[in-house]
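Lesson 9: reading folded outputs for more than one chain in a single document. The general rule is that every protein is listed as its sequence immediately followed by its structure tokens, and records are never interleaved. Here is the first one.
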Amino acid sequence: MSNALAIGAVTAGLKDLIGNGLLGLDLSAIGSVSVSALPPDRITTGQTEPNQLNLFLYQVTPNTGWSNQQLPARDGSGQRSGRPPLALDLHYLLTAYGAQDLAAEALLGLGMQFLHETPALSREQLRVVLGPPTPPFGEFSALSLADQVEWLKITPKYLSTEELTKLWTAMQARYRPSMAYQVSVVLIESDASARSALPVLKRGADDRGPTAMAAGAPRLYGIAPAASDLLPAARLGDVLRLRGERLGAAFGLAVFESPRGAMRQTLAADAGDVAGALLVALPEVAEAGAVSDWCIGQYAVRLRNDPPPGHPPVYSNPVALALAPLIEVAPLAAAAGELLLTVRCRPRLLPAQHDGVRLLFGDLEVRAASIDTPADPAEPTTLEFAVADAVAGSYPVRLRVDGLDSIVAVAAADGYVFDPQQTVVVS
């Protein structure tokens, strides 16, 4: 592979190829001829126009054959995992200038003949041009271009009148006889170190290779409280219904993963009362660890099998579940004026959740006056809220944590009603 000087090195190689071709010719009828690599707008034209062949790099495009030859340079964590080359095709414009009649046409023909007879830049020629005694880039070496795996092939490109017109208009230069060429492929590689995987010595324990399954893993469609699909979230103590397909007996574990504190819980999944569904019971608040081991927020839920020893587990796709706070409010009856409400919340709040906690007193949003999470992991978080100038009325109370509201409705004979245990009556 070559380094970042490869583009300039290719131009130097083409310039040398044309210059060497002109050296063996008797051009006394035309006069002295030079070979340059300048933008066309910097070349003198008109009465003092020189005899000159000019190479101008007007475009660089990706080489589609090499673009996906290797994997990306970095892995998911941002670490460099490889050194894929920057694969480029270089597009040149060969232009002839002449001080007298037919000089430009003759020079363009000569330049095209040299590039036609030498359709590639050889490694030997590049070593002569880019090496000592006079390397074109001084102390910075471009010799690695001569050793890249691909040869540098020179291909004529016959541009249409429209393409030439646009090109010369963009250069803001006087048009002269021109021919386009493509040089392919230039491979530029970084010198930075990269990680390289060690060879595989064993394909798993005892070199058994991968484990094959006769059927696919379960596919989950959704999860919701079994009491009603209308409930927006689940709470501790709820029974959940997992719906999907291929829910075999082998996949009897439900894994709950939360981004909050990297919490991970595993519960048993049992056959449900509906075909194509499993039931999972969330722990009751009185169970050991339920209040402290779970957190309010979003969970990714997947089914997992219980693999035999030495075999990796198999997981289903994840589905989302929201776990809402379960609250107790006191007092439930108060006189009008300023109120001080105490709310006990399960599961316990995490420190990162304190700033976003709000109490919705009817349609009024109130910040917490204090938040206390006892050292005893079995105790809930206690919050206090001050409500100013409360007037007589009935106020459903909700606690909002991480954007999730506690569920304030309960089922009744004629549908859902506000829970009396979460409604403060002000008189």
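And here is the second record, again sequence then tokens.
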Amino acid sequence: MIGERLKRARAASGLSMADLGSKAGVSATMIQKYERGNSMPSSSVLIAISKALGVRTEYFFRPNVVQLSGVEYRKKASTPKKILNKLTADVLDQAERWFELRNLWPEFPMPEFDAPDNLPEIRTLEEIEDVALAVRQSWRLGIDAIGDLIGLLESHGILVITTDLEHADKIDGLQASVEGIPVVVVSTAWPGCRQRFTLAHELGHLILHDLLPSDMDEEKACNRFAGAFLFPRDSVLVSLGNERHGLNWKELDLLKHEFGVSMSAIMYRGKDLGILSDRVHQRLSIEFSKNGWRSNEPGEPYPREHTLLFEQLVYRGAGEGILSDSKAAELLKMSSYDFRKSKMMAS
């Protein structure tokens, strides 16, 4: 148990065995023995290791060891393995705390994910528009903008994990499952539009995976789903009209803040729906590139989204006597003193 957790925590920290050994006052060989389960660190060494890795000593004795299955990274080709290891370790730590909380709760107040039934058949990319609309109708969303996408996915049984690790921009998304529960990971450093498109794209994988014809590119299909889910066809037609010969940045900025999708994604929606011709879309894309707007769109960025559900459930569990203050503090990675103080400030 301790060996596996030590390997994960060291991967998350980016420390080599030699670096960790130096900080903890032992040799790299001893760190290797600890990780392989051939030796057990003394209490003083374990405390030193905990400080070096930035974890509480309780971390090493956490009863649940979860495994990510079906891991799918959408990453850049140049992404170093070290960054992927750190990200995976961070996700595992958060997932373990989630499942420990879940197992302590008599009836955990989060539903199981279940894709809507009787979705339309898909033969072409265009028909994905109807699937996205059917999911919206099943979830009673209408065609209006979705204000809190993370909250929406969580309310339908998808575990959303946010990571604040450096270099998370090296990936575009991560989807996996833990004990059959779908997990989607986004970075807290991404702009809100990028977070939302990634979340909708990964939802597309969950919805479309078994519906697509064998010759259809699943990534392209999920991009189409993401655009259609966030900015539905009828809303696009109302906002842009049936045919356009140009778009200005201010109009795009207003729509971006209404629907939470990037200007580039709005232009793609116009192209997908035939509102913009290929020639007009190409001209607008060239203009964006010349102005440097592909990486930094003009105007205020769309606000980032955050997940609050885990923290809310920990405080709720402590308030209802399901969790002790010490267990709640451990799950939130804070001291018992700080947890009790935070409860007093809130009361």
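What the second record shows: DSSP finds 16 helices and four strands in the chain.
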